[in-house]
């Protein structure tokens, strides 16, 4: 898929995932001007927008052919959006960025990593409910990144 613009990406995601939960608001910009939910384009993009981010970042390692990944994407996007810019979501396609997936020892998809200040705080593998993801993410942020806040729904 060529990444021509945000509107085309959203249309593609809606068709693939078949969910009305993904909307323009999920791809909004935080107060810093950076996108809170974004696709990682290359290793340099990952370095700049994930490893150097001052906010915690949920990294979603996924594949276009993975059905559980398609079901997980809107759940994670919704939870990150609830945080109003306090947490970011970086989506990494393992087929496009295989080297990055290997660097982070991603053996299966979907895999979620929580990173803060360039370090992996925790990881989760497989499809989970929104409630489980929300609770897990809250525990990780409150325990491993106490300087950050997690808004409980």
From TrEMBL:
The keyword Disulfide bond applies. One of its GO terms (cellular component) is mitochondrion. Residues 1-142 form the Thioredoxin domain. SUPFAM superfamilies: Thioredoxin-like. One of its GO terms (biological process) is cell redox homeostasis. Keywords: Disulfide bond, Electron transport, Redox-active center, Transport. Belongs to the thioredoxin family. This is GH23019.
